[in-house]
Design goal:
By secondary structure, the chain is of the alpha/beta class. It has three domains: about 220 residues, HUPs (Rossmann fold), CATH 3.40.50; about 90 residues, Tyrosyl-Transfer RNA Synthetase (Orthogonal Bundle); about 80 residues, RNA-binding S4 domain (Structural Genomics Hypothetical 15.5 Kd Protein In mrcA-pckA Intergenic Region, Chain A, Roll). Helix content is about 45%, strand content about 15%. It has 19 helices and 15 strands. α10 crosses α11, α13 runs parallel beside α15 and α18 crosses α19. It starts with 5 loop residues before the first helix and ends with a strand.
């Protein structure tokens, strides 16, 4: 294998938290092509930003010549993973899970190349749903120690509030996944978030017993921002990877509002820019650091939503925030536009109002509510009364100030802003 090994890439970019048999795995990843897998939970119709670390790890594994398996947990979702949870998850129907699993399979195709057997998309419902329970207990359950299972952090967290027996079986099923993938697909490495360490180790023990093969596990850090906030949570809620749930514009805005201390870490984890360029960002400050945030936002949006959507979001940000072109000396590998681009606000959220409505004048709080800048009219009144609302860059003085045709610019539009970050364009329908 040429260039850096997958281990070196993942290590220098900050993906690795724990590894079983680190030195043998490091050596193996540098000299052989292997098959690895990560499981994805289909409890929603879309993955979210919290899933990006495992997704990007599979991207790097594939780019280094290895074969990734993206495993959609259609079978284990019928049980519910207790890892990191203080309460039992809602039991979902098979139809709900299957629908979500199909949506996630399509979504993962944006990141991984599944053509030519370069990667596999599998659903563990295909082998778990038809298991014979008595045979499973005899052949698989007999390999597990209840005492060791209860010592696992994922179970210990739940014991005080009560651990349901159906959840207690989850470790056995995930372990069986690793065994099944090793036996049928030659998979020798399971990866996942650090909360999956106990499940991964259990799967390794089971597979070594039944198959007698040397297999490995790797976990990633559970990320929070430098302010201690959970990744992908905003005032509008979860940041989804599905453009129908979080628009490419809002997705871009999430990344461009990254805290200063997180920029380098996020460039390493969530873009494919060379680490030599990422490390240069450690020297940046002020305006240049803001340019680095723009590059982060562009590259993250491009990976998830494609080049066209990333350019459209960049164009909207240029016109809204007055962002300056990024000099070619900064992140030369980035595909971000390097020159002034034509006016493009297509990516910005838009609300349409008739000319008759605007001629009569719309109270500002009602317009902010209609534009989804505030969740309720009460919130809109409070935000505007506290000076947090703007129309065409001018602060709105009273919550019931009338917004109308006099506010239309030369292009027949009105720009609303809540605080420093939320923008919506009003257009005449």
């Amino acid at each position: 294998m040429n260039g850096k090994s997958a281990y070196d890439v993942l290590h220098e970019r900050g993906f690795i938290e724990q590894i079983t048999d680190e030195e043998p795995l490091r050596d193996l990843l540098g000299r052989e092509t292997i098959t690895c897998y990560i499981g994805f939970d289909p409890t929603a119709a879309s993955l979210h930003i919290g899933s990006l670390v495992p997704i990007m790890s599979l991207v790097h594994m594939q780019q280094c010549g290895h074969k990734p398996i993206a495993l959609v947990g259609g079978g284990t979702a019928l049980i519910g993973d207790p890892s990191g949870k203080t309460e039992m998850r809602r039991i979902m129907t098979r139809d709900e899970i299957d629908m979500n699993a199909e949506a996630i399979k399509k979504q993962l195709s944006q990141y991984l190349d599944f053509g030519g057997n370069n990667a596999l998309l599998l659903n563990n419902a295909d082998w778990l749903a038809d298991l014979n329970y008595v045979e499973f207990l005899r052949d698989i359950g007999s390999c597990f120690s209840v005492n060791r299972m209860l010592a696992a952090e994922s179970y210990r967290m739940r014991l005080e509030k009560g651990l349901n027996f159906i959840e207690f079986n989850y470790m056995l099923l995930q372990s069986y996944d690793f065994y099944y993938l090793c036996k049928n697909y030659g998979c020798i490495l399971q990866m996942g978030g650090n909360d999956q360490w106990g499940n991964i180790v259990a799967g390794i023990d089971l597979t070594r017993r039944l198959e007698g093969k040397k297999i490995y596990g790797m976990t990633f850090p559970l990320l929070t921002t430098s302010q201690g906030h959970k990744m992908g949570k905003t005032e509008k809620g979860t940041v989804w990877l599905d453009a129908g749930l979080t628009t490419p514009y809002d997705y871009f805005q999430y990344w461009i509002n990254t805290e200063d201390l997180d920029v380098v870490k996020f460039l390493a984890l969530f873009t494919l820019l060379p680490m030599e360029e990422v490390r240069e960002a450690e020297k940046l400050s002020d305006a240049e650091l803001n340019m680095a945030k723009a590059v982060l936002a562009f590259e993250a949006t491009r990976i998830t939503h494609g080049q066209d959507e990333a350019v459209a979001a960049w164009g909207a940000a240029v016109n809204t925030f007055g962002l300056k072109p990024i000099p070619s000396s900064l992140f030369p590998s980035s595909a971000i536009p390097r020159t002034d681009i034509s006016r493009d606000i297509s990516a910005m959220p838009v609300v349409e109002k008739t000319r008759e409505e605007l001629a009569a004048g719309i109270p500002a709080f009602e317009l902010f509510y209609a534009a989804d800048l505030c969740a309720t009219k009460s919130e809109a009144r409070r935000v505007l009364s506290q000076g947090g609302g703007y129309v065409n860059g001018q602060q709105i003085r009273t919550f019931d100030e009338k917004i109308g045709v006099d506010h239309l610019n030369n292009d027949g539009e009105i720009l609303l802003r809540k605080g420093k970050k939320r923008h919506v364009m009003v257009r005449v329908s």
